[in-house]
């Protein structure tokens, strides 16, 4: 019984640790556009909100084109950077039918511009993390 109580005590701590690790992550699925707002401290960014609702004040907009299951063509992943500085981020792509996940890539979007990437067909989701501004 003591072991069960100890286990129950530590389980919530593990969930909090995992949640804080992923709290700076924007998840986007095919056909979605996510509008993200951040707090900025120097060149470091911390995600404060991410929503599917259109937000003209969003500093970063992440969009993943819809997947057409009848075609096996690459799909477009777009990141719009509304900061004045260059934005660097890490993208982890999850693809259906893949037993091994694709390696994460570090990408960038020039200040005030957007970046476009082509992703494999059947992409399920993209987790965008590690947001940093570069002078």
Give an overview in words.
The chain is an alpha+beta fold and 135 residues long. The protein has one domain: Immunoglobulin-like (Sandwich), CATH 2.60.40. Helix content is 16%, strand content 48%. It has one helix at residues 2-22, and strands at 26-28, 33-41, 44-51, 60-64, 75-81, 86-95, 105-109, 114-119, 123-134. The strands form two sheets. The chain has a five-stranded antiparallel sheet, with no helix packed on it. A four-stranded antiparallel sheet has the order 1-9-6-7, with no helix packed on it. The relative contact order is 0.22.
List the helices and strands and how they pair.
Blueprint: H1 2-22, E1 26-28, E2 33-41, E3 44-51, E4 60-64, E5 75-81, E6 86-95, E7 105-109, E8 114-119, E9 123-134
Antiparallel strand pairs: 1-9, 2-3, 2-4, 4-5, 5-8, 6-7, 6-9
Short description:
With 135 residues, the chain is of the alpha+beta class.
- CATH architecture descriptor name: Sandwich
Q: Give the number of DSSP strands.
A: 9
CATH topology, by name, is Immunoglobulin-like
The number of domains: 1
Strand arrangement within the widest β-sheet reads: 3-2-4-5-8
From the structure above, extract its key features:
alpha+beta; 9 strands; 1 helix; four-stranded antiparallel beta sheet
């Amino acid at each position: 019984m003591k072991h069960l109580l100890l286990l129950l005590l530590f389980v919530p701590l593990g969930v909090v640790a995992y949640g804080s690790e992923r709290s700076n992550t924007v998840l986007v699925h095919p056909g979605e556009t996510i509008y993200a707002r951040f707090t900025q401290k120097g060149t470091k960014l911390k995600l404060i909100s991410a929503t599917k609702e259109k937000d003209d004040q969003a500093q970063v907009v992440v969009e993943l084109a819809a997947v057409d299951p009848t075609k096996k063509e690459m799909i477009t992943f777009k990141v719009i950077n509304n900061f004045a500085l260059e934005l660097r981020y890490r993208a982890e792509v999850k693809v259906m039918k893949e037993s091994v996940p694709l390696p994460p890539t570090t990408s960038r979007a020039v200040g005030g511009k957007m970046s476009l990437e082509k992703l494999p067909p059947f992409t399920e989701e993209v987790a965008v993390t590690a947001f940093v501004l570069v002078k």
